[in-house]
Amino acid sequence: MWWPVIGALVAGFVGWIDPRTLGVGYDNIDALVQGHFGLAVLLSFGALKFISWVISLGSGTSGGTLAPLFMIGGSLGAALAIGFNYALPAFHIDLRIAALVGMAAIFAGSSRALLTAVVFAFETTRQPAALLPLLGGCTAAYLISALIMRNTIMTEKIARRGVRVPSEYAADYLEQVSVGTACSRDVATLKTTQALAEVRRWLNDEAPHSHHQGFPVVDERGRVQGVLTRRSLLDPQWHYTLTLGELITRPPVAVNENHSLREAADHMVAESVGRVVVVSKDDPHKLVGILTRGDILAAHGKRLREARYAGRHIKLGKSNKPSPAA
């Protein structure tokens, strides 16, 4: 509970030094974009506001980010413009435009909201001359932020709590692949009327297709009744005279061939299984194939290979390989 108190003490002490650092600061923002502050005021005010805001926000108290960023960025932008005008007076940099660009750029970099910062600054000032500098400054700030910052100022606290915050948005590849294109259709099926002794002999003889870890079990009409694993079929607790239909303890976990791999993966997790039966879109009891975790990983591996192939550069230079005559 003492952290907010410490933050308040620091903010109050800085405010005692420079009262302009206290409050929302809209009047300070207005003075910055009108060019009313000199170099000494810009440097002192920007530094003190930065110290006050950082310590106050880091102490855990509730506080905004937009207005403080505008004041800090505006002070820095105007101070840099004064320095450039002193070193390179031929450029005639407008302090008001520089302060506005500094405000928008620091917001674009810290929040990584490029277009929002540009449109917000342009819409509030309605200065067409500032549009091009705003685009350049905000784009540069955005790129630098993307290179050196893992999280934005809006998501840093969430990330520190262990919540993964995606910085980029992309389409889910598994959502784009249907189960029917990824499943294995060459499936060895067993019948409910088969005796366990017969199936065990088939497994021990290592007959074709007997190396699978799971086998769909169908009835006389070819309707799927369940799935039996290799482990359950070879389990010694089951007597060899039992039929496969008597070993089935749960209905089959099935997905439609038109479902996506994302839906199938979610279904596997929800049912705690490593394979699901794939049924026809027209008949929910007609077996089409079987989908395993390996099939989902193989589809994901295909995406990785395609991404690596797409990232290769095309070499247009002459090949260094010797000719067949050599």
- What summary fits the major beta sheet? 3 strands, mixed
Give a count of the beta strands, DSSP E runs of length 2 or more.
6
- CATH architectural arrangement of the largest domain: Orthogonal Bundle
CATH class membership of the largest domain: Mainly Alpha
Distance between the termini: 81 Å
Q: Strands of the largest sheet, in order across it?
A: 1-2-3
Count up the helices.
15
Shape, principal axes of CA atoms: elongated
| Secondary structure category | mainly alpha
Q: Which consecutive residue ranges, at least 5 long each, have pLDDT under 50?
A: 313-326
The radius of gyration over CA amounts to: 33 Å
What is the count of structural domains? 2
Describe this entry's structure for a reader:
The chain has 326 residues and is mainly α. It has 2 domains: 2-160, Clc chloride channel (Orthogonal Bundle), CATH 1.10.3080.10; 173-310, CBS-domain (Roll). The chain is 53% helix and 8% strand. It is built from 15 helices and 6 strands. It has helices spanning 2-17, 26-33, 39-58, 66-87, 95-111, 114-125, 131-148, 156-160, 173-176, 179-182, 196-204, 230-233, 244-247, 261-271, 293-310, and strands at residues 190-191, 214-218, 224-229, 254-256, 275-279, 287-292. The chain has a 3-stranded mixed beta sheet with strand order 1-2-3. Helix 4 crosses helix 5 and helix 5 packs antiparallel against helix 6 (114-125). It starts with a helix and ends in a 16-residue tail after the last helix. The relative contact order is 0.07.
